Amino acid sequence: MSGPLVFAHRGSSAALPEHTLAAYLRALKEGADGLECDVRLTRDGHLVCVHDRRLDRTSNGRGKVSARTLAELEALDFGSWHPGCGPDADEPVDPARTRLLTLERLLDAVHGAGRPVRLLIETKHPTRYGGNVERRLVDVLRRYGLTEQGPDDPVRVTVMSFSPLAVRRTRELAPTLPTVLLLDTLPGWLRLGRLPFGARIAGPGIALVRSRPWLVPTLRAAGHQVYVWTVNEPDDVDLVLAAGVDGIITDRPALALARRG
Ligand code: G3P
Ligand code: CA
């Protein structure tokens, strides 16, 4: 493979409901090099793959994810809001398209893929559970043997956050785990291209990359890799390919893979 890694953002989430097992399995089938997910803690301490703080957009529930137990979330439908959920013809809806995905179920699926898979896990902040999110995440990753990874390991995890403190916590808890500092605005210190707290990888949004052509070369010249999100349009895929980024995070992995060639 030459060119950047292609990561499926919340799975193949243009085609299927985001953060469902079906969306991730589809991304693997499409040939994505890796998967991206967001994690939040439930009231009883489980990590679940949900982007929003609230349940309202992506499920038939209401209120905050953090206020519910895992059992309560398991009872909700996380797929029917999406046009790709189905059912196809007279088929019943596949539960993989509607069921809540826990981080552990995602890790099991990635391990079962039978080929190398990269996994980007984003911890969401602010949250009432603060640093417990990273502590719990590192516990789970350690249990799966993923905190000390070698270049030949089939499953390799990178932890991401928009919160520099969350990145620092991850570095303290698991110093060899790669980290991405996500960026949706341009902090003053970034002009020098250096990231704080030992983050190895920069994660700017596509809008930043589009409006600041100097950004990717500056970050790379400072020794950082660059993963750009969320790159869904053909022109944007071409732009980041031409810029020489290291990772493309996209809702449409098949499109990005086809353009990467
Ligand atoms: O991959 C990074 C990207 O997911 C950050 O934004 O809002 O989609 O989590 P968001
Ligand atoms: Ca994310």
Automatic annotation (TrEMBL):
Gene3D superfamilies xref list: Phosphatidylinositol (PI) phosphodiesterase
Domain of life: Bacteria
GO molecular function, one term: phosphoric diester hydrolase activity
PROSITE patterns referenced in this protein's UniProt entry, alphabetically: GP_PDE (PS51704)
Domain GP-PDE: 4-260
Gene Ontology biological-process entries: lipid metabolic process
PANTHER family named in the record: GLYCEROPHOSPHODIESTER PHOSPHODIESTERASE 1-RELATED, GLYCEROPHOSPHORYL DIESTER PHOSPHODIESTERASE
Protein name: Glycerophosphoryl diester phosphodiesterase
Organism encoding this protein: Micromonospora inyonensis
